[in-house]
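Action item from last week, closing it out:
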Amino acid sequence: MSWLANIFSFRSFRSRLIVFLWALLLPVLGGIFYYVNRNNTEYTKETINLYPELGASVFDFTRLQHTETLSAITTSLT
């Protein structure tokens, strides 16, 4: 039990205050880090999954326009 008392014995009030503030601040900062990291991961996954779908829809629309243009040209030539 003596070693436990030696760990928590401080030579000055300033060092005790710093350790106390760190003990209060560390869980708060950890919680903020976890929340921000989780939201960044979700946003990144949504963005990665959104752009291929958007690109595919633009490609399909452009291909449909070209098909209609070629069909109109073919119809006018016959």
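Closing note: The radius of gyration is 32 Å.
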